Amino acid sequence: MHYVLARIKVKPEVAELARGILVDLAAKSRQEPGCVAYELYQQAEAPHVFQTMEQWKDKADADAHMASLHVGAALAAAGPLLAEAPEIVACRRLL
Questions:
Q1: Which residues contact 45 (CB under 8 A, 6 or more apart)?
Q2: Residue 45 to residues 15, 42, 48, 49, 50: CA-CA distances in angstroms?
Q3: Which range marks the domain in which residue 56 is found?
């Protein structure tokens, strides 16, 4: 399995707009080949901060996801809303 965590921080005033973009991205990502799980979270105390936790069958599936048209469209739409560059990291599950 291949795990990916992404932290996305947007400008506070556009949090709801970003939420819509990210919800759509999550729904489309869940339909991709190799997607085992794709969860989206919004911080309760900082609603302009989002986190995804993704599980892919393998790294090739995660790479294909990042190269997909819907990821490109989401990045283009969310780009102007970002407060900083997203932090995207591959992880190993320990437990």
A1: none
A2: 13, 9, 9, 9, 11
A3: 2-91
CB 41 within 8 A of CB 52: yes
User: 35: domain CATH number?
Assistant: 3.30.70.100
pLDDT tens profile 27-78: 999 999 999 999 999 999 999 999 999 999 999 999 999 999 999 999 999 9
The rounded distance, in Å, linking the Cα atoms of 36 and 24 is 17
Please, what is the Cα angle at 51 between 70 and 19, to 5 degrees? 60
Total number of domains constituting the chain? 1
- Distances 51 to 3, 69, 77 between C-alpha atoms, Å: 13, 21, 17
CA distance 59 to 42: 25
